[in-house]
Each structure stands twice: as structure tokens, then as C-alpha cells.
Here is the input.
Amino acid sequence: MSGNFLDTEEVIRATGGMLLNGDMGIVFSGVSTDTRTLRPGELFVALRGKRFDGHEFWRQAVEAGAKGLVLSRIPGDLEWEEFPKTVSVILVRDTLRALGEIARYYKDKQGFRALAITGSCGKTSTKEMCAAVLSRRFRVFRNPGNFNNLIGLPLSVLAVPPDTEIGVFELGISVPGEMSRLREILDPVAAIITNVRPAHLEGLGSMEQVLEEKFRLYAELPETARIIVNRDEEELYRRSRDLPQPRITYGLHIEAEVRAEDIRVRPEGTEFTLWVEEKRFPGVRISFLGDHFVRNALAAVAAGLVFGVPPEEALSALAEMKPVPGRLRPIRTKRYFLLDDTYNANPGSMYEALKTFWEVAQEFSPRVAILGDMLELGDEAERFHESVGYMAGRIARWVWAVGEYASVVARAAGKVGAQTRAYARVEELLQELDLPAGAAVLIKGSRAMGLERVVEKLREE
Here is the structure.
């Protein structure tokens, strides 16, 4: 990602690295970890992964115009006699850690404040809502897509424009220790944990470990930071009471400082009454569907209060927002009412999607749930898929499942009266996709399932 300026001396100061070639005055226009997208003038950080080693691509980086390389070893085919003196080469112990340290240095240099958002469900929607609210009074940057891990977060920080006042960043973890490092890199002044649900169990092991790792975002903040707490998440709230940081709560709970009541979910959107510290705002409407999006909106209102955006301005920003593709977006076609929730799935988000589907699809017939696998659930995968099947079977007349656990979902749904089909691959489902006019269709599964192709085909009919 480019558009920013650090010189060699600053990179060495940030990383503690050793300059092997070039000079301290060489300036970089940005940082890249991928020679395929590297732009002339950027610093190339050679990362190592299970299936790749960026050190093998040092030559491509230089040929693409890199002005510097950050390496943890000297490639065997690098000949110093032939290497250009106009390219800095910096040796560090660990290039991934160095990437994070460069991002930390850059953030301190730019001086913007950061809001961090994590959770098992709703990170991206909450991030987008918070960014919209804060944009009413500040110049705001938000990290793109799911650039939220130990590689994506530093690259996002390094992409922040120089005039930014607040950065809104989602943080995603899949193994122990990641949250502590992400928080260290970002050093946020405020944080939100949306919820804790079964997700990334392959790497985190158990729900208890998920909670422990997520909660580190709150627990490891400095005492001057603000924590924005979902009052409906009882364990998060209970633990947060023991922390020294100033806290503001949101949710549907009667004790929440930013609270919603009288929620009405319709195909066109969701309406509710907002309470902010005992001030009532009736008739609030957002274009998003379901209680969980209301909670995301409440988190954004609370974030606005933390940074100085009044509720009236926050509500105006939220009213202008539209659902993004793949995140429970309602679509009306000539034949169907579709709920496109194909971006990702875990047991928590499946429950919310099915609940919302039940609320908004009453006027349609038949109700059809097309569900793909939920990935990274480890040893609990079959149990969670069976639970989803039971719930889907009670809500939809037809349940069509796709993936490795399709038969588990279909069998459970069939036990409670649904008509079911099970497919190993999306391509097989597409060949038999034939629904009557007037149907309401929920399409949801993990991103890797590719269920957006089902949405595309139904929209064409």
C-alpha cells in the first residue's frame, strides 16, 4: 500500500534492524509484502509463511522498483557486487514483527487516534457504522475488507492518509497471542468487543479460550483508554467491571447507557426507539435487518459519544447507510425476496441470520434456507451444524445444505419437518436450483463456500 513516506533511518529506528546496503536517506513511498502489487518506490518486507517465503522474490521486488528490502536472512542468489546502491537492505530478526513495528512507528508519527473493534460476529458492520458516525466530525480512515490480522493490520495502518484524525480498525484473531500483538501495534484509545461466539475453534481450542483472547483487547489497554461494552454479553460485561478503564455500555439490556427498545424488523429495514443516558429518540430507522444490526448501530452511537459526536448526528449518519453485499443484504427481484448473507458464517451469525429470516419472511412462501458449511470449528463442527439444521428446519419449509456437513444439516432439518437436500458442492446445487415465484430465500455460509454464485443466479431469474 502506498502514499506514505518513511525513510531508511526511520525504518531502522522502528525495527532495530541493520543496514547492509543503501543509505539512511533513501525514502520509501509505502510498504508492500507482495511483489505482484508492489509499486515503484515502496519498501518490500519479505514475509515467511507455511507455503511461501518472500525472500525468494527479492529480485522481482527490485525489478518492480522497490527502494528497500527488509529481510531476516540473506538470499543465496543475492550478489552485493551487482546490487544497486540506491536500494536499502535492512536485516532484522523477524520480518513479520518488523512489519508491525514499522506500522507502530508510522502511527506515532502521524498522530491519529485509533478505535479498535473485535468480536466473533459483526466486526465489519460495526466498523463501517462507527466510521460513518465519526466521519460527521472527523477525517476518518477504516481498514479495508478484512485486513485485520498480523499482516493486514500493519498494512492498513501504513495506508492511513497523513491528514487522518481517527482510524477505525477491526481486529481478527485465530490463534492465541494474536490479540495482544494487534493491540500493541495499534495502541487504540478506545475499543469495542461486539460479542463472543464459537469461531476459529481450530486455532483457539474452546469458547473459553476465544473469550480469553478477545478480552485481552480490553484488559491490556492503558487506563486512559475507553472501553465500549455490549451490555447484552453478560460475561464480557461482568469481566469489564473489574477493569480500571472508563466504560460506556450499549445493548438491549435495561441497564445499557445506549439502549434500544421497541424493535420492529421488516423487509425494508429495522425500526427502534433509542435511549441515550435517559434521552429518548423515537422512530429510529436503519436499512439493516435484525437485532444484531441494532446492537452494531448502538455500538456506533456509543463510539460517537466517546469521541464527541452527538447522538443526533450519529443517527443521521446511520440512516444514510446501506447494507453491503454478503452481509444479510435484502434483495427483491421479480420472483424472490433474497437475504444475501454469503460473506461468512459461524454458529452465532447463523443463529442471528435465521432469526432475522423468520422475522422478515412471514409474508413469503415458501421460505427456503440455502446453507453452506461453517468452517474452522474443530472437533465441535458436527454438533454445531446439527444445531443449525434443527433451527433451520423449524423456520424454513425447504432446507438445502452444501458442503462437507450438508448431510448433517439436512438430516437435522428433516427431523423437524423440513424438505431437505444435501449437496457436496455449490455447482451441484446450481444445476438443480429451481424455486417457485414468491419464495423468500436465505443464502448463508462461510466465505470459502462461494454461495454468492447462488445469489447471482437467483437475481438473474
